[in-house]
Amino acid sequence: MVPxxxxxxxxxxxxxxxxxxxxxxxxxxxGGGAILVPVLYQAFTLLDTPDSVRMHLSIxxxxxVIVPTSISSFTAHYRRKAPDMELLRSWVIFVPLxxxxxxxxxxxxxxxxxxxxxxxxxxxxGIRMILNRESxxxxxxxxxxxxxxxxxxxxxxxxxxxxxxxGVLNNTFMTLYGRSVHQAVATSSGLGILISxxxxxxxxxxxxxxxxxxxxxxxxVNWIAVVLTIPIxxxxxxxxxxxxxxxxxxxxxxxxxxxxxxxxxxxxWSIV
Length: 272
Known about the structure:
Layout: H1 4-28, H2 33-43, H3 51-79, H4 85-90, H5 94-106, H6 111-130, H7 147-162, H8 167-176, H9 181-206, E1 217-218, E2 221-222, H10 223-244, H11 249-271
Antiparallel strand pairs: 1-2
């Protein structure tokens, strides 16, 4: 049995994580995973979860939480007619294929490797968002296939390896091709749906039967964390979406970049 005091502390940490993750899901279109993963990683230490599965469990649980959070965030942005629906339709196959590939990789990856991937991507994207200039463009419009399909595949792959809803990478992709950060954020909320559903199934499969998992876990998903976090994130996501539309583009980019650098620093520290 888990001591009551530790369980209550675990619940408190998850509640705070849900508030922040839900708000950021709406504001940045990131599904909340970029904040949930590092917080869950720390929270699972309270239950003495072995390091060998702690990062895997944090990512899988994050993807499970992102399923309803992304739907809520996308609905809020869709009401404003902000997402690029043509881009989302073109990625319906390629993004999930990348997520499936990530699930296969996760089945054999170490905890340190997953933390390194998370930190490296967050660092690069964070620096790019903070130092961003309008002249930093690869084109004036989004590329056509096959380049678009390849980008969708890798966004799905890397996002599933990080446990995020796609906004971390898609925001960069779209702004480099001349789209506004507001449209990128709104589109990323829809991308989270394409990533979280196959990601949830993939992480359930990848960790199925692992004896090191804590109580109430199925594969690399802990249902205590899911049940506690989802209601809070659903309440906060619309507030974050409303806040995003009140900020100008440069403010949103800078805030997103600072946030990613903080997350990257935390995970690099855990690897050292």
